[in-house]
Write a structure and sequence with these properties.
Length: 258
């Protein structure tokens, strides 16, 4: 993750995004280096460019700064978190609030509540504005990128409850997240380290499961997982993506009604 905190980094932002897995908008350092009045525009530019390149983007620093001392944020801070979500960021980050503040747990709960409220109220705007600019940057990913896009379209048109994505390396789940489907994405992998990386992606709930050996077992695992976590129930339809052969990358899309 490349931390963008210097004017020189902003000037060569495209090159940095091209080389990194993701970027962090380090607003505190940017404010010192550029001036506070320039940070909002630079933040939006970084997020927009990362979105267009299909790279992770994290917005950080002083998001709920007053909660280091007080149990509730200011209205301006709540709006700041909300606007970062509206801009298209994949993740928002607390630092001092949880590392040294008096109310670390309350800070996390408040940020979670703000993000959930924005996403529930503005999901159509959030998904469309980012989805319109998405590309598949790697020619090797063209097939799984098309499969991910199809899953996102089906989720909208068929009012699916969720998309379960089985992945060996995280690529298919990443491409699916880039498409900003309107439903939760469950990224299922056998590798804990891959699950940790998936946690940064927009809309993805990573889960570690024993890998399936057949297509039928894939469907059964997906159904059991969604039912267990109350993400779907009898009569609900969901999509699941999986690799065929099962050792490859997710290139197959299927629908199932519980």
């Amino acid at each position: 993750i490349a931390k963008i905190e210097k004017p020189e980094a902003v000037e060569v932002l495209d090159s940095i995004i091209d080389q990194a897995d993701g970027v962090m908008v380090a607003r505190g350092d940017l404010g010192v280096e550029l001036g506070s009045e320039k940070v909002p525009i630079v933040q939006k530019r970084i997020i927009r460019k990362a979105n267009a390149a299909g790279k992770i983007v994290i917005t950080a620093t002083q998001m709920l700064d007053s909660m280091m001392r007080n149990p509730r944020p200011t209205r301006a801070e709540a709006a700041d978190v909300a606007n970062a979500v509206m801009d298209g960021t994949d993740a928002v980050m607390l630092s001092g609030e949880t590392a040294a503040g008096k109310y670390p747990v309350e800070s996390v709960r408040m940020m979670d509540a703000i993000v959930r409220e924005v996403e529930s109220d503005s999901i159509d705007i959030l998904t469309q504005q980012v989805r319109d600019m998405r590309i598949v940057p790697n020619e090797d990913w063209r097939v799984i990128g098309a499969t991910a896009r199809a899953a996102a379209v089906l989720a909208s048109h068929l009012h699916l409850r969720a998309i379960v994505c089985f992945t060996n390396d995280g690529v298919s789940t990443k491409l699916l997240s880039e498409r900003r489907p309107r439903v939760p994405i469950v990224g299922v992998t056998r590798y804990p380290e891959i699950a940790s990386r998936l946690a940064l992606l927009w809309g993805v709930a990573p889960r570690v499961e024993v890998p399936p050996e057949t297509i039928e077992e894939t469907r059964r695992i997906a159904t059991a997982l969604l039912t267990r976590e109350r993400m779907a129930g009898p009569g609900d339809t969901f999509a699941f993506l999986f690799p065929w052969p099962l050792s490859g990358r997710s290139n197959t899309l299927s629908l199932h009604t519980i």
